[in-house]
């Protein structure tokens, strides 16, 4: 690329918390769509969207999984919504060591919303498709930019770095060797 203007399609899931009923259909649909094999199980712990619930005030806030971060953030702000205090972590979309949200329960790998990118492509993400209260709506818009797009870090590399940080390079190398032997047998 020469650094000239580029157009990028930005995909957005807009959340209207006043419409969210807390049914968690978005969590179930997401986890079923991303199950291996697809639709074989429902486990909200594997969902890339979570509904933060405050039963006392009947407030529900859907949060989508964002980027993985190796460290906890320094932000410890407190937000007051309709008289109830929430920590900044309550609405954070990052997968981080401070909490178990957006971490695959079996492998410990971070989860990130992929807007249900699949082959064939979906018209809109599964969470939006199943949200009968219309608290989630899907939008696309084209954005013109001057700079070159940043290359995304390879997902395999991110996963391997996470596993190496958690278990050490020797354990990961041994497991990869074991798995490759099993696949060739």
In short:
The protein is an alpha+beta fold and 185 residues long.
Spell out the blueprint of helices and strands.
Layout: E1 6-15, H1 25-33, E2 49-54, E3 59-64, E4 78-81, E5 84-87, H2 126-130, E6 136-145, H3 155-167, H4 169-184
Antiparallel strand pairs: 1-6, 2-3, 4-5
Describe the structure in your own words.
This protein has 185 residues and is an alpha+beta fold. It has two domains: 6-150, no CATH class; 152-185. The protein contains four helices and six strands. It has helices at residues 25-33, 126-130, 155-167, 169-184, and strands at 6-15, 49-54, 59-64, 78-81, 84-87, 136-145. It has a two-stranded antiparallel ribbon. Strand 2 (49-54) and strand 3 form a beta hairpin. Helix 3 crosses helix 4 (169-184). The termini are far apart.
Low-confidence stretches: none
Report the sheet-strand fraction: 15-25%
Distance between the termini: 44 Å
For the biggest β-sheet, the strand order reads 1-6
Strands, total number: 6
For the residues shown, what is the average pLDDT? Answer: 85
Helix/strand order, N-terminal first:
EHEEEEHEHH
Number of helices: 4
Structural class: alpha+beta
- Which overall shape is indicated by the principal axes computed on the Cα atoms? globular
**Helicity, in percent?**
10-25%
Biggest sheet record: 2 strands, antiparallel
CA-based gyration radius: 19 Å
Count of structural domains:
2
